[in-house]
């Protein structure tokens, strides 16, 4: 009895309310694997070791159903590889381990092919990989599970372990499709009780799968901004895996005489969508940096702070984002706008701040995109300032030129008056003498 649990550059940024109370954001270091001198060589070695272990642990399964063993091996390797990639992201070390453990335990689920004590192990722990898969689905891209999601995983794990243990201790190996020679820790062999427990336990796990699908949909509807773009493919893949697992659980509940390998094979193939979805999400995070090109195009000619604010909101998918100037009134207003928000000062080079960004703290997960967007905004604002300064200097030059032209005119007018006065005086003197 195996798979019955649902598968599942220049800105200073900190959280705070105002300058002077800077709670600098500390970005966790990458896992030890990626601090290695040659991380890709280390990752290749990890994948090789996992591949050999997962191929060996299935053992006789290769003779019984080579297609199923191959699908399990591909599942394990792809999940481990995805975990290694996700582990490079900030705050995703736990998610990475959950993905890798889900991959390894998928192959371990089929260790019952070796007989001996392993059929009993597979009956009780055959769905552990789904627990780790659900953990990864519900956690990413957050830094931790919510209280509701944590309680769900605890309840599902408890139901699986307790229920399956009761099935084992009230049944015999042959009732579960295993050879009679298999070691089986039965305490009370009651086939009617065991069958009833089997239906109840697997029905509960199917309800757990429906609950997981509901949690994923609710989570998607409540997610906003860039996170929603990232987790959409993961949610879709998770729901598809849940449906496949429910079908597998139903076939297991009604196939007491043997293992439904066709259902397991279909489930493994569908579950491959989960690591692919995680890889797509990771790729989307990298491709989001292209949004900066859009931002640069919008403010290329330079713009006022309102235009740059609108461009930042569009590119970062944050309608609550605010962009303030560094005037005294704006800095005083910062205290009322920034509690619990992410605050970043845009500087002109290494000089004084020229603007302040107040944004959704969830953008901290997309640091590269945020930093690139604020840097592009800083250049646009700086260009706008330079253009305004150049226009002001041009205006001053025009004013100075006009003042320079008015002074000679006044001087020539005074000279003409003096000449006229002298001429009139000479005329009067001559008439007197005459």
Task: Compile the SSE list and pairings.
Layout lengths: L11 E4 L7 E2 L14 H20 L2 H4 L1 H21 L6 H16 L9 H8 L2 H12 L7 H23 L21 H32 L2 H29 L7 H11 L1 H15 L3 H8 L6 H12 L5 E3 L3 H10 L4 E6 L5 E7 L7 H67 L1
Characterise the protein shown here.
- With 434 residues, the chain is mostly helical.
- The protein folds into two domains: 12-289, Rhopdopsin 7-helix transmembrane proteins; 299-387, no CATH class.
- The chain has 15 helices and five strands.
- Strands 2-1-4-5-3 form a five-stranded antiparallel sheet, with helices on both faces.
- Helix 3 packs parallel to helix 10 (261-271), helix 9 (225-253) runs antiparallel to helix 10 (261-271) and helix 12 (291-298) runs parallel beside helix 15.
Notable traits:
disordered C terminus, elongated, 15 helices, 5-stranded antiparallel β-sheet, Rhopdopsin 7-helix transmembrane proteins, 66% helix, 5% strand, disordered N terminus, mainly alpha
Question: What's the short story on this structure?
Answer:
The protein has 434 residues and is mainly α.
- Radius of gyration equals 36 Å
Give the percentage of residues in beta strands.
Answer: 5-15%
For the record, the CATH class of the largest domain is Mainly Alpha
Distance between the termini: 144 Å
| Count of helix runs | 15
**Poorly predicted sequence stretches spanning 5 or more consecutive residues:** 1-31, 415-434
- Global geometry: elongated
CATH topology of the largest domain: Rhopdopsin 7-helix transmembrane proteins
């Amino acid at each position: 009895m195996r798979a019955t649990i649902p598968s599942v550059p220049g800105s200073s940024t900190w959280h705070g309310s105002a300058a002077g109370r800077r709670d600098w954001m500390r970005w966790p270091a990458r896992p030890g694997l990626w601090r290695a001198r040659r991380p890709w060589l280390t990752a290749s070695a990890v994948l090789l070791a996992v591949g050999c272990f997962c191929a060996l642990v299935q053992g006789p399964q290769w003779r019984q159903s080579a297609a199923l063993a191959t699908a399990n091996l591909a599942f394990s390797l792809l999940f481990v590889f995805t975990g290694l990639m996700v582990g490079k992201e900030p705050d995703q070390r736990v998610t990475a381990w959950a993905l890798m453990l889900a991959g390894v335990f998928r192959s371990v689920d089929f260790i019952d092919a070796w007989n001996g004590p392993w059929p009993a192990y597979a009956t009780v722990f055959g769905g552990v990989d789904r627990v780790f898969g659900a953990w990864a689905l519900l956690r990413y891209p957050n830094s931790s599970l919510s209280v509701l999601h944590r309680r769900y995983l605890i309840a599902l794990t408890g139901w699986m372990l307790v229920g399956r243990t009761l099935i084992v201790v009230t049944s015999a190996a042959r009732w579960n499709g295993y050879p009679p020679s298999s070691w089986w820790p039965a305490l009370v062999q009651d086939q009617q009780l065991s069958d009833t427990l089997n239906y109840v336990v697997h029905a509960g796990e199917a309800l757990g799968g429906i609950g997981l699908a509901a949690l994923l949909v609710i989570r998607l509807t409540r997610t906003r901004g860039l996170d929603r773009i990232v987790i959409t493919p993961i949610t879709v893949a998770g729901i598809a895996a849940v449906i496949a697992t429910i079908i597998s659980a139903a076939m297991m509940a009604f196939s007491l005489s043997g293992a439904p390998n066709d259902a397991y094979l279909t489930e493994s193939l569908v579950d491959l969508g989960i690591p692919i979805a995680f890889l797509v999400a990771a790729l989307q995070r990298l491709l989001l940096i292209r949004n900066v090109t859009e931002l640069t195009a919008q403010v290329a000619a330079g713009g006022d702070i309102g235009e740059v604010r609108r461009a930042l909101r569009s590119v970062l998918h944050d309608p609550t984002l605010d962009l303030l100037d560094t005037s005294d009134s704006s800095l005083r207003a910062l205290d009322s706008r920034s509690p619990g928000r992410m605050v970043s000062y845009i500087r002109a080079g290494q000089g004084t701040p020229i603007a302040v960004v107040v944004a959704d703290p969830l953008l901290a997960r997309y640091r590269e995109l945020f930093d690139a967007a604020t840097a592009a905004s800083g250049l646009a604002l700086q260009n706008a300032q330079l253009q305004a300064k150049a226009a002001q200097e041009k205006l001053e030059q025009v004013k100075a030129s006009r003042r320079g032209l008015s002074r000679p005119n006044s001087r020539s007018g005074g000279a003409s008056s003096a000449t006229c006065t002298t001429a009139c005086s000479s005329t009067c003197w001559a008439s007197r003498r005459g």
